[in-house]
Amino acid sequence: MNYRVIAVLLVLCSLESLGQCSINVSLKKICLGATTVFTPSPATANDSAFAWSFGDGSTSAQVSPTYQYPKAGTYTVTLRIYTFGGNYCEATPITVNVFDKPTAKYNRISAYAQCFDNNRFEFLDVSQPGTSNAPLKQRTIVYDDGAFDLDLVLDEPAFDHSYSDIAGGKYKVVLEVKDTNDCIDQYVDSVVVHPKTINLSLNIAHNVQCTKTDIILSHNGPYNATNANKITWILGNGDTLYAPWNNLSYTYISQAYRMYQTRVIIEDKNGCIIKSDSQRVFTASPDSVIQLYHFNNSCFSNNIVAFGHYNLFQTRKWIVSLNGDTTIYDHNSLQPDSVQYHRFKTCGKANVRLEYTY
């Protein structure tokens, strides 16, 4: 009889020796998708067994389990620690909150692929809070070229970016949003910048004659039907030609002095447009280009006459003849502009001839 009483007392003393146990958790406020580490205290009993319940039907027998909740919610976590002989300690339950993450998303407003010149990609942030309805408090955009934007106000959903590397490439644009629960979500999409095209220059070789001008237009671009879509020669007189790819021969026909602005435009395989600077082509001027600007005195006494011309060529020589008296104004005696002044020595009808270089 006495031995049985002693045995019961020993069991009661053994249960008391376990003391208190508790649960430690790395995070009590958890964002969906994150893992949480649960640690018992005490956790060094080599002869102990652990029975964890995470509040969603899942359990674990590990000493310090790592767990990821599959959906948002509020969960009660319990732990019972068993020692050798069947004794156990019941830890005080804890509550963890698992919050749904916000949804990061943007719409690309501009084209997916753009030419380097004047590239500008435009986006619209359409991110939404998670089911917990925690407001968004931060937005970060990373453009994959070393640039980023950090926005703590979120009052303007639109954002844009231009790339400066002339080599172009494919860039990942990452949008990250954070809510007031510090839950984060990311959205990733890409854009493409086509490489910068070479600077296109237009060269002109011409032969100016009295009523026509023969030209050959060429450019410095290595373009042909295999690496470009289209070439356009703009001749400035209303004519536009789409061939050949280089060394275009053309003749301007004109009965008067004219100046035409020419240009070449190439569209490459990416649809990028390359334009040359404009170059001027002149056609020859007939004799009627000479203009009598004014008389200071219509009478012979103190007469002075000004001759001029419309063209932009360099004057080489004026030849003025009256009654067998000929005066030549050449490079030694020309006025510094396109107007030449002359005083006649006799009366009569004068012949005036202009020579100029192209």
Briefly say what this structure is:
This protein has 358 residues and is mainly beta.
Task: Itemize the secondary structure elements and their pairings.
Elements: H1 2-16, E1 22-25, E2 29-31, E3 36-41, E4 49-53, E5 59-60, E6 66-67, E7 73-82, E8 88-90, E9 94-99, E10 106-108, E11 113-114, E12 121-125, E13 136-142, E14 148-151, E15 158-161, E16 169-179, E17 184-193, E18 202-208, E19 212-219, E20 228-234, E21 240-241, E22 248-253, E23 258-268, E24 273-275, E25 279-283, E26 290-295, E27 305-309, E28 314-322, E29 325-329, E30 340-342, E31 351-357
Parallel strand pairs: 2-9, 11-17
Antiparallel strand pairs: 1-3, 3-6, 4-5, 4-7, 7-8, 7-9, 10-12, 12-15, 13-14, 13-16, 16-17, 18-19, 19-22, 20-21, 20-23, 23-24, 23-25, 26-27, 27-30, 28-29, 28-31
Tell me, briefly, the overall form.
rod-shaped
- Beta-strand percent range: over 45%
Count of helices?
1
Low-confidence stretches: 1-17
Extended strand count: 31
Helix percent reads: under 10%
Major sheet size, sense and barrel closure:
6 strands, mixed
Oligomeric organization of the protein chains: single chain
- The helix-and-strand class reads mainly beta
Tell me the span between the first and last alpha carbons.
138 Å
Mean pLDDT: 84
Rg, alpha carbons: 46 Å
